[in-house]
Every structure is written in C-alpha cells, then in structure tokens.
Write a structure and sequence with these properties.
Blueprint: E1 3-8, H1 13-23, E2 29-36, H2 40-49, E3 54-57, H3 60-69, E4 76-78, H4 84-87, E5 94-97, H5 105-112, E6 117-120, H6 123-128, H7 130-139, E7 143-146, H8 149-157, E8 166-173, H9 191-194, H10 204-212, H11 214-227, E9 234-238, E10 244-250, E11 255-259, H12 265-273, H13 287-290, E12 296-297, H14 319-335, H15 341-352, H16 355-358, H17 368-383
C-alpha cells in the first residue's frame, strides 16, 4: 500500500529534496497535499508532475493568479489551512512541515490531527510554539520526528534510553564562513562573504544565522524543548567539517556519536522510511575527518550571541518569540546592506537584553494568538529604533 504524504512548503529546499526522494520511489508514495505561499508557478508544476489533487497557496494575490493559470480540473486549489478537513478525510501516513518562519506554526499545528507522523524542520515553530505543538501531538497520538541534522542525530542516538539516562548532549556547529577569521576582521565583513557557507546549501536568512552562530543558539533551544533536557546539560562544539552532528554522553559511561555527510537528504530519507531501512548512495567513511574532528568550545568574543543562552528561561516562554523576531528583523537589515555584520550582532544582543523584552521570560504562550500578537508588537517596536 502506498504511503500517503503531505508536504507543507513544497517549493522550498526541504520540500524539493523530499519530492526528489519520492520521485525515485513513486510506487510507494501518494502525495495528498502540497502547499506554498509565493511560488505558485512551481507549486502548480509540482502538482501536475506528481498528480497531486490538492494544493494550498496562502498568499491571496498568488492564489488568484494560480486559479487563473490552472486549467486542470483534477487539481483543487485552496487558500487556507482551515480547508484541511475538506482535503484529508482521515489520517495520512506522513507530513513534512518545512514552511519558513513563524508563519509555519499555524499550519504545523493544524496538520497534526491529520497525520500519523509529522516531520518538522521549521525552527521557529519548535522554538516559539513547542508547548502548543506538543499538546496537539499528544492529543492526536501523532509521532514526531525532528529533521534538523543535529536533532535527528540526538533523536536517533537516544532511542531506547530514558531522558534521565543522559548526562550531557553536545551539538556541533560548523562555525560558518568565519570560524577561522580573526575577530579584528569582523568589522569589514561583506554580505557576499557571509553568504558563502563552507558546507551547507541553504537559504540566505539561515546562512546568515549560521555565520553569527545564532542558528546554533536556536538549535539548543529546540533541543531543550524537544528532548526536555535542561540547558545545563547541552553544550555547543565547533566542528568545521559538519561531519559529526551530535554527541550524547550517558550516565553509564557510554558516549555515542552520529556522523553523516552534510546533506539534508539523509535525515529526511530516514524519517520517511523509518523502520524500513532504505539504502542510499553515500560516500565512504571519511577517515581523514574522523582523525581530525577539530572540536572546540565556541569563541564567545567572536560569536557573542551564544551568551544569550546563559539567561534563557528554563521553560518555553514568549521570550523565544521576542528572540526570533529581533533576529529576523536585523538579519534582513543586513541582507539589505543597511547595517554591518558587527552592528547586526550588537543590536540583536542589545535589544534581546532590553527591559522591554526580558519580561516575557515569565510569560508562557497559552494559544497561538499570543505568539503572533507578540511578534507583531515587537516588529512594530523595532521599526521605531534608529539603526
């Protein structure tokens, strides 16, 4: 029987990777739903290529464009995730949530009740809305699989263990393009340099987050949420080759590591096939890298945003929404060449520690509207700041 799947954010890099996997094994998959926000032409092309009957495009202008463009009566086009009841009459086997940004939170929560397994690669949802997602996962008995390479590695390593068995988790960071750049040279960093990640092919926004190591800070928050591990038991180690993704030290003296090539195809394939081990073509074991892992503590003078972890609240709060919003705002300013790399990091750090925002560490999100309302409020406040 074919596995029935849905891909939220099918026109992004993760969505495209999953579609490439499905294309090579069409006999075992049936795609029930594809979604996008802007790229209506690619979405329609994907729907026709994979014979998908249902698509959602959330941007109103692009929804109207795709309605006009589509001549295939077999394709149903929707503009809202409220229509999931019309699309999915019963639980499908697998859903991938790969919509970028906090806009991915609502669709992620909405799809949980309609799927047996949900793979989530949307950082913002896992950071800001984990308690809300977890509640839905528990309510509808949906299996959750994290897809970020670090979290998928931890997820794989701790199977058959209790959380209480874990002594420490180490998450690795490539260090981005500036791992070996002297701190004195940070003042002259150009956008073009920051967008040249040495190992991963990613979107511009997340590539800049990797260059500042803010991306790694967010991954620690994700790990805390997903695995219910206190911050005091999670460490970051720089590892320039991105070959080793996580280390878990257990209380019984055993330490496990997980390695794989820096290719998101690997966690995605393993998440969708799960117990049915799928053979994929990969390179031979890289003995050279294993003999020189070059693991080091993060240089906090070069990457000061990691210091924010020292004052994070012990439980999921609205402060995480503040962090996401502040970081997004200034990263996009840098991408627009309106501020320097150093200025971007200084403003993120300064605003994240301001009295106006630290108070949200004591407030927990009770509903999704709390998160979206705060995001809009913080965004408005930031537009009034002179940079």
């Amino acid at each position: 029987m074919k596995k029935k799947i849905a891909i939220l954010g099918s026109t992004g890099s993760i969505g495209k990777t999953l579609l490439n996997i499905v294309e090579k094994d069409k006999k075992n998959f049936e795609i029930k739903l594809l979604t996008a926000n802007q790229n209506y032409k690619l979405l329609l092309h994907q729907a026709k290529k994979f014979k998908v009957k249902n698509i959602i495009i959330t941007d109103l202008k692009n929804y109207l464009k795709i309605k006009k463009l589509n001549k295939d009566k077999n394709i149903n086009i929707y503009k809202d995730f409220k229509d999931l009841n019309k699309i999915l009459s019963k639980k499908i086997d697998y859903s991938m949530s790969s919509i970028m940004g906090l806009d991915g939170l609502l669709p992620t929560i909405k799809i949980v009740k309609f799927t047996k397994n949900i793979a989530i690669v949307n950082k913002e949802s896992l950071i800001c809305g984990w308690d809300l997602i977890k509640k839905e996962i528990k309510k509808y008995k949906t299996n959750f699989v994290p897809i970020d390479s670090e979290h998928f590695s931890i997820y794989t390593l701790i199977k058959n263990y209790k959380i209480s068995d874990i002594e420490r988790i180490y998450i690795t960071a490539s260090g981005g393009p500036f791992i070996n750049l002297p701190k004195k040279n940070f003042k002259s960093i150009k956008l073009k340099q920051a967008l040249k990640h040495p190992n991963w092919k990613m979107g511009k926004k997340i590539t800049i987050d990797s260059a500042t190591l803010m991306n790694k800070m967010f991954e620690v928050i994700e790990a805390r949420n997903i695995f219910n591990i206190p911050y005091t038991k999670i460490s970051i180690l720089t590892h320039p080759s991105s070959y080793l993704h996580s280390i878990v030290k257990f209380k019984n003296g055993i330490t496990k590591i997980l390695i794989h090539e820096p290719d998101m195809k690997i966690p995605i394939i393993n998440s969708i096939y799960q117990k049915n081990l799928k053979k994929i073509k990969t390179k031979n074991l890289n003995i050279g890298v294993l003999n020189n892992l070059d693991l080091k503590q993060v240089n906090l003078l070069k990457f000061p945003l990691i210091n924010l972890l020292k004052k994070m609240p012990p439980k999921n709060s609205l402060y995480e929404t503040v962090l996401i919003t502040i970081n997004d705002f200034f990263v996009y300013k840098f991408l627009q060449n309106k501020i320097s790399f150093n200025r971007m990091m200084k403003l993120i750090l300064k605003l994240s520690n301001s009295k106006d925002f630290v108070k949200y560490k004591k407030i927990h999100p009770k509903k999704i509207e709390d998160i979206y309302k705060l995001r809009d409020y913080v965004s408005l406040k930031l537009t009034r700041i002179s940079i």
